[in-house]
Structures are given as structure tokens and as C-alpha cells.
Design a protein that fits this description.
mainly alpha; Farnesyl Diphosphate Synthase; 14 helices; 0% strand; globular
Length: 331
């Protein structure tokens, strides 16, 4: 008889760590750029959005697993099928119910966030919900087309970060969107690596980006995505959008070389997973820990230097946002 652990494995509950780390990165970024002293922050809306993101992620996992099983996409001898629905360890009907319940709950939380005064969340919320349900369901079934990585990039990059930032501070800038790019790329890399690993099992069953490009060009794309992610972090640090300690993400770069050397080994996905988590944790540490003293001092300095007559952090923030945009344009 299946237990809770079996359902957790089939639902790939461990992948929710990616969304959780992204949410922490978004909050830490807001803490750096928009200053927690601002009384316009809406923490309740942020909590609703955060839970909605996690539930949408769970819904996407479970409904996708259900659809894979129905379509016979997962081969029984594939390296990734030990804890998949195709093995029969849990009921398909139960997995579908979990997915539907998670999707409905996420939608309710999203509506609650909008009703808390964050109407700007309506557009990213609707787009995110559409991607979640259309990822594996008809009529689009995006994961079975060569655009699964694009959907993952959008969902776990710009859409996730835009939703978190908008729920918290109520507006967003171009720098905020640029900051989300590395995290969307890192998450898309994991999907691309999984599809590279499953290339021979997907042939004739699913039309993924890897089956279209081939393994060689897929690896070139994967390495390009990883290096773009590192480059964006470095550029943002040089532009003073991120703290200089963000250069520490380069510590994880050797894992890229190790993963490439093990490209014919199924373990290369695990190496990229470690790289992914390490990348996120270092950014979180930089945003929350290594620059904590600087954040408080910068808030005091900015208020005194930018506009000593400012009555609230909102006014200071507006001026600083304009100056940040000018710096990025100059670069």
C-alpha cells in the first residue's frame, strides 16, 4: 500500500526547493533594492504569492506526471523512472486529484493577493497559471514540444520574480527583470539536462528541444545558458545593483566543467543540481548575510544624501531607482 513518501516521490516534492530558493532570492533582492523600512511593503500579499508559487509548482509536477503516464512517455527502463507513476507505486487518480487540488488552492491564493491591493499581480498570475496548466495539458501540451525550456525559464525567472517583487513593493523596474534572468536560466538548465539524459528514451515519443537539436548542440546550448547566468550576475554586481560579494557565485563554476566531463553519465544531472543549489545559496547569503551591515548603513546614507527632505522611504526609493536605471543605461 502506498504511503505519503511514495506520493512525495512521484510528485517530485524535492523540486519545490527550487521555487523556495527563488522566493528567498526575490525577497533578499527587495531587501537590498527597496529597503524593508518602507511601510508600503505588503507582506501578507507576498506570503500568499509565495504559497501560490509552491502550489502551482506542485500542480505542474503532478499533472505532468499523470499526463506522461497516460501517453506512455516514461520508459520503464529509463534512469528517471524508479519513483515515477509508470511503475504503479501510487494511484494515477490520486496523483491527478493532488494536482487539481494544488492548482485550485494556488489560484485562490493568487486572487487573495490581488484583493489585498496588488492588482498589478493579475497579469503575471494569469500567465503563470496558463503555463502551469498548459505545460502538459491540451490543447498546447508545451512540454511535448521544443519549448519546454522556454516555459520553465519564463515561469521560474521573470514571472516568479515579478510576482514576488510586485506583491511586496507594488512596482517593478528593468533591473528587477534582468536580475531574474540567471535564475530562470539555471532552472531551465536542469530540464535541458534531464532531456539530454533521456534523449534515447524520448525519441519517437516526445518532441523535446534535445530531440530537435541533438545531444551535441543541446550541450552547447546548456553551457551557453550557464555562462549567461554567471555573466548577468557579474554585470549586475559591477553596476552596483547587487553587492560585490555576488562574485562568489564563481566558486560554483568548476561544477560546470565536471558536469560536462560526465556528460555521458546519468550522474551529470545530479552535479548540475548541486551547482543549481550552490548558485542560489551563495546569492541568498550575499543578499541576506554578507552585506547586512551595508544595507542598513546605505539606507541611512541614501536618505541623508539623496533627499534629506524625503518624508518616507518611498520617495528615497523612487530617486534611487532612477539613479540605478541611469547607471545601467550608462554601462
Amino acid at each position: 500500500m502506498p504511503n505519503i513518501l511514495s506520493y512525495a516521490r512521484v510528485s517530485r516534492i524535492h523540486t519545490l526547493a527550487m521555487s523556495s530558493l527563488s522566493i528567498l532570492c526575490a525577497y533578499g533582492y527587495c531587501r537590498q533594492q527597496y529597503y524593508a523600512a518602507d511601510d508600503t511593503w505588503n507582506h501578507m500579499a507576498f506570503m500568499c504569492v509565495s504559497l501560490a508559487i509552491l502550489l502551482f509548482h506542485l500542480a505542474t509536477n503532478t499533472i505532468s506526471e499523470y499526463r506522461d503516464c497516460l501517453m506512455g512517455v516514461d520508459a520503464i527502463h529509463s534512469p528517471a523512472t524508479k519513483y515515477r507513476l509508470v511503475t504503479g507505486i501510487v494511484s494515477r487518480k490520486h496523483v491527478l486529484c493532488i494536482g487539481v487540488a494544488a492548482f485550485v488552492s494556488a489560484s485562490i491564493l493568487g486572487v487573495a493577493a490581488v484583493m489585498m491591493g496588488r492588482k498589478v499581480l493579475l497579469l503575471p498570475g494569469l500567465i503563470g497559471a496558463c503555463i502551469s496548466i498548459s505545460y502538459s495539458e491540451k490543447p498546447l501540451m508545451l512540454k511535448y514540444k521544443p519549448c519546454g525550456e522556454v516555459c520553465v525559464f519564463l515561469a521560474y525567472g521573470p514571472l516568479l520574480f515579478a510576482s514576488c517583487i510586485l506583491s511586496l513593493v507594488g512596482h517593478i523596474s528593468a533591473a528587477d527583470v534582468i536580475f531574474s534572468v540567471p535564475f530562470g536560466l539555471m532552472t531551465a538548465v536542469i530540464l535541458l539536462a534531464n532531456n539530454i539524459r533521456d534523449y534515447k528514451y524520448d525519441l519517437g515519443k516526445a518532441s523535446t528541444l534535445v530531440t530537435k537539436l541533438g545531444v551535441r548542440y543541446s550541450w552547447i546550448l546548456l553551457l551557453a545558458m550557464l555562462h549567461i547566468a554567471y555573466a548577468v550576475i557579474i554585470v549586475l554586481a559591477c553596476c552596483e545593483v547587487l553587492p560585490m560579494t555576488s562574485f562568489l557565485v564563481l566558486i560554483t563554476h568548476p561544477l560546470t566543467i565536471i558536469a560536462f566531463r560526465k556528460r555521458r553519465d546519468t550522474g551529470m544531472v545530479n552535479i548540475l543540481g548541486i551547482l543549481h543549489i550552490g548558485f542560489y545559496l551563495i546569492i541568498i547569503l550575499c543578499l541576506f548575510g554578507l552585506s547586512r551591515g551595508n544595507v542598513v548603513q546605505n539606507q541611512i546614507d541614501l536618505r541623508n544624501r539623496v533627499n534629506i527632505e524625503a518624508s518616507s522611504w518611498a520617495e528615497v526609493r523612487k530617486i534611487v531607482d532612477e539613479r540605478t536605471a541611469e547607471k545601467i543605461n550608462e554601462k
